[in-house]
Amino acid sequence: MRNQLLSIVLSASSLVTFAGSLNDTIPLHEVQFIQPGKTNIELIPLNSMRITAEQINRSTETSLLPVLVNKVPGLFVTERGMAGYGVSGGSAGTINIRGVGQGNKVLFMINGLPNWAGIYGHSLADTYTTTEVDHLEVVRGPSSLLYGSNAMGGSVNIITRDQDRNGFQGRARMMWGTHATQRYGISLGYRHNKFQATAGAQYDRSKNNRPGSNFWLANEVAQIRYNASKNWNAGANINLTQSLARNPGATNEPLLSMWTHFFRGTAALYANNVYDRLRGGVQMYYSWGQHWVDDGYAPDAEPSDYIFRLSDFNRGFTAYETLNPWTGSDLSLGFDYKQYGGHAWNDLDEGGREEIIDRKETEVAGYLMLQQQLCEMMSVNAGVRLEHNTQFGNEWVPQAGFILHPVLNNTVKFSFSKGYRAPNLRELYLYRPANPNLNPEYMYNYDVEIRQRLLDGHLDMGLSLFFIDGKDMIQTSMVDGRPLNGNTGSFINKGVEFDATYIINRQWNANANYSYLHTSKPLLAAPRNKFNAEVNYNPGQFEFTAEVQSIWGLYTNVTSGTKNDYTLLNLRAAYNVDIAGICDAKIFVKGDNLTNKHYEINEGFPMPGATVMAGFEVKF
Question: Which domains does the chain have, with CATH numbers?
Answer without folding.
Answer: 2-619 (2.40.170.20)
